[in-house]
Amino acid sequence: MNRSEATALIERYYAAFNAGNGDGMLACLADDIAHDVNQGQRQHGKDAFRAFLAHMDRCYKERLSDIVIMANDAGTRAAAEFVVHGKYLATDEGLPEANGQTYLLPAGAYFDLAEGKIARVSVYYNLADWTRQVGG
């Protein structure tokens, strides 16, 4: 994989995200995907990622804009920066109560890529900013 192939893979991943296409996102992932959840534990495998997506769909409705993707020449590492436009639909455990609050949040992600798939994704955003925006 080279830089342009790596960038195209991340573009497909985020296009699937914005289309609400969980299967499309999963198709971009290695079977043993390592997923570093913001402020949480590392999860492993597509089944864990599928469960994460179901949880996110229940609690949040999100769309990303202003996506900028960078990759190294070898196509083994990538990063993305974007803005999350969200709506808090259902209370997530340990977080403020949901009542349809909207939020606008800068975020980023880092990727390891192997054999044409995403092998690791680590997502970061400012949880204190999100909490302030939803009234926590």
The largest sheet has its strands arranged as 2-1-6-5-4-3
**Domains, number:** 1
Helix share bin: 25-40%
Poorly predicted parts = none
Give the number of helices.
4
Per DSSP E runs of 2 or more residues, the count of β-strands stands at: 6
Which structural category fits the helices and strands?
A: alpha+beta
CATH topology: Nuclear Transport Factor 2, Chain: A
Describe the protein.
With 136 residues, the chain is of the alpha+beta class. The protein has one domain (3-133): Roll (Nuclear Transport Factor 2, Chain: A), CATH 3.10.450.50. The protein has helices at residues 3-18, 22-27, 46-59, 127-133; strands at 29-36, 42-44, 60-71, 77-88, 102-114, 117-125. A six-stranded mixed sheet has the order 2-1-6-5-4-3. The longest helix has 16 residues, at 3-18.
Question: Quick gist of this model?
Answer:
The chain has 136 residues and is of the alpha+beta class. It has helices at 3-18, 22-27, 46-59, 127-133; strands at residues 29-36, 42-44, 60-71, 77-88, 102-114, 117-125.
Q: What features would you highlight for this structure?
A:
Nuclear Transport Factor 2, Chain: A, alpha+beta, 136 residues, 32% helix, globular, 6-stranded mixed β-sheet
Chain-wise SSE layout:
Blueprint: H1 3-18, H2 22-27, E1 29-36, E2 42-44, H3 46-59, E3 60-71, E4 77-88, E5 102-114, E6 117-125, H4 127-133
Parallel strand pairs: 1-6
Antiparallel strand pairs: 1-2, 3-4, 4-5, 5-6
